[in-house]
Fold:
Amino acid sequence: MSKLRLKLKSTAVADPQGDVHAMIDVACNGTTLEENIQLSASEITRTWDATINAGSNNAIVINVTNALAYDVDESGDFNGEGEVVSAKITSIEYSTDDVNYTSILPQAEVTHVIPGGANVGTTITLRPALDSILMADTNSNTINFTTADGLVNSTHYIAVQASIDGDGNYFDQNGDPLDN
Structure:
């Protein structure tokens, strides 16, 4: 049986009644894994039986069920420390055999030096460093990955900034060609 392992914690809202941490539901590839997980400032590790599709897209869905914001500094914006409750995913690992785990978060930076053409010697970032993914709303927050490529871009993060095809052509995150 395949497994999915996440390390999670929460940022708190400094509510007048006391700090409030995130509660979340977790699903993978359309199957609910666990509901009403109470997070805190301390990191927890959860492991579930989950279907992991080899060679195709996989989707982890995190739903923050108690999204809350409090304008602590009364600035009119909810962008300061302690103003928005959020779930913070610091590690994602999966196993297709329940023995060997593959880590896809954190993600190390991957760069490449262009070997020729007008931009010879230019270093481009293929994959940026990611140490966590922050989710703060009650809408379904999806983390996409494949077993071949690891994390793929989503609305919450950029996991791939550029790519190189089999012919040595460079493309940005939108699939538009970069000048070689």
